[in-house]
Design a protein that fits this description.
Elements lengths: L14 E6 L5 E2 L2 E2 L3 H5 L1 H9 L3 E5 L17 H11 L3 E2 L7 H8 L6 E3 L7 H5 L2 H8 L4 E5 L13 H8 L4 E3 L1 H15 L5 E5 L8 H8 L4 E4 L3 H8 L14 H13 L3 E3 L4 E4 L8 E4 L8 E5 L1 H12 L3 E5 L12 H15 L3 E4 L2 H9 L8 E2 L4 H7 L5 H4 L5
Parallel strand pairs: 1-4, 1-7, 4-6, 5-6, 7-8, 9-10, 9-15, 10-11, 15-16, 16-17
Antiparallel strand pairs: 2-3, 12-13, 12-14
Helix pairs in contact: 6-7, 9-11, 10-11, 12-13
Bound molecules: 3-phosphoglyceric acid (3PG) and magnesium ion.
């Protein structure tokens, strides 16, 4: 990517407006996974250590856009960030307005503040220029380090940097954004072969576009997760009570036909770990090509695991998006774990291995294997859209080197 980064600008004594993706999972006001905060630390510390004055902005969840909603407040994130960087993080409690302008004006070199959830204003989602202008006026430099949000055209992603550029201010990429794009677009652009995509998760509907896009690019697509059952229906197989999307069966058929005509192998599971219910203590059995009445397919079976693993360990590039089964509920975690182990083995053998997507990233993290693959993306929708080959406005507008 020939984009300027935060390393290319002199930030000393300057105010930097940095859009990050601090949309972290929370339960009862507590952060349950702070990887997205940690992933932004390199850019944050780079500004602070050089004496920059940092204004951080993010969304959290999907508030209605009618003002403050306590459950979507970024205050817990400000507190966590302060712990991680070992210095106070000012929190003016709004996105625009007097308190924010005053807090920004009083920042000293090496100090940092975090704005309140930018989506408390409807104007954020709509990308309104007037609202964006108020944020743009706060700083001298714009930095986008919010890869997870890079597919959104919201005010802090597009209208704010546009306004700042129009005022002659630099708009650059953060280190996380740079790294994500390097992995996700290089994987597509110039992959080491064989190039294998592993797609899982519950819904075919989420993955139709990416499967179509990947058919022309990868050597093999491995399909697991509940979306495999919709493909089984499309093949005229029985799926018992497994989760399916009946209205996507025709599209699944079209994908199977397109795969048949392409050079890409689309590989479906040949056996399934089934349960009577999605609970840990349910009765289980392994089904072959058909799943009988009264059973739910909840994970890929042992033969499928060895099939998939054999393909993965020989790959030059692997991208993985979506778990192979209901991995949060034991014993249906095994397929996802075995696939993760195969990815680690492939990485050791020299393959580039990339985990994109919220659930598969969470799974590999939980299993303690995140450090043993090439890259774990912080993006969910953004990493999928990048694999689909989409171009993001939020990235396109950044200054070239
Ligand atoms: C995400 O978690 O996918 C990003 O933070 C974007 O959030 P959004 O899907 O609500 O736009
Ligand atoms: Mg999302």
């Amino acid at each position: 990517m020939a984009k300027k980064t935060i390393a290319d600008v002199n930030v000393t004594g300057k105010k930097v407006f940095m859009r990050v993706d601090f949309n972290v999972p929370m339960e009862g006001g507590k952060i349950t996974d702070d990887r997205r905060i940690e992933a932004a630390l390199e850019s944050i510390n780079s500004v602070l250590s050089r004496g920059g004055r940092l204004i951080l902005a993010s969304h959290l969840g999907r508030p209605e856009g009618k003002g403050f909603e306590a459950e979507f407040s970024l205050k817990p994130v400000a507190d966590r960030l302060a712990e991680l960087i070992g210095k106070p993080v000012a929190f003016p409690g709004d996105t625009v307005g007097e308190a924010v302008s005053a807090a920004a004006a009083s920042l000293k070199d090496g100090e940092v503040m975090l704005l309140e959830n930018v989506r408390f204003y409807k104007a954020e989602k709509k990308g309104e220029a007037e609202h964006a202008g108020k944020m743009a006026a706060l700083a001298d430099i714009y930095c986008n380090d919010a890869f997870g949000t890079a597919h959104r055209d919201e005010a802090t992603m597009v209208a704010v940097p546009q306004a700042m550029k129009a005022a002659g201010k630099p708009a650059v990429a953060g280190f996380l954004l740079e790294k994500e794009i390097k992995y996700l677009s290089e994987a597509i652009g110039a992959p080491k072969r064989p190039f294998v995509a592993i797609l899982g998760g519950a819904k075919v509907s989420d993955k139709i576009v990416v499967i179509k896009a990947l058919l022309g690019k990868v050597n093999t697509i491995l399909i697991g997760g509940a979306m495999a059952y919709t493909f089984m229906l499309a093949q005229g197989k029985t799926v018992g009570g497994s989760r399916v999307e009946k209205d996507k069966v025709n599209e699944a058929k079209e994908i199977l036909e397109a795969a048949g005509k392409s050079k890409c192998d689309l590989v479906l599971p040949i056996d399934h770990v089934c349960g009577k219910a999605l609970t840990s203590n349910t009765e289980t059995m392994v089904a072959g090509q058909q799943i009988g009445d009264g059973w739910l397919g909840l994970d890929i079976g042992p033969k499928t695991v060895s099939n998939f693993s054999a393909i993965i360990v020989k790959a030059g590039t692997v991208v993985w998006n979506g778990p192979m089964g209901a991995f949060e509920t034991k014993p249906f975690h095994v397929g996802t774990r075995r696939v993760a182990e195969a990815l680690v083995e492939a990485t050791t053998a020299g393959a580039t291995t990339i985990i994109g997507g919220g659930d598969s990233a969470a799974a590999i993290e939980q299993m303690g294997m995140a450090q043993q693959v090439s890259h774990v993306s912080t993006g969910g929708g953004a990493s999928l859209e990048m694999l689909e080959g989409k171009k993001f406005n939020s990235v396109g507008l950044l200054d070239e080197k």
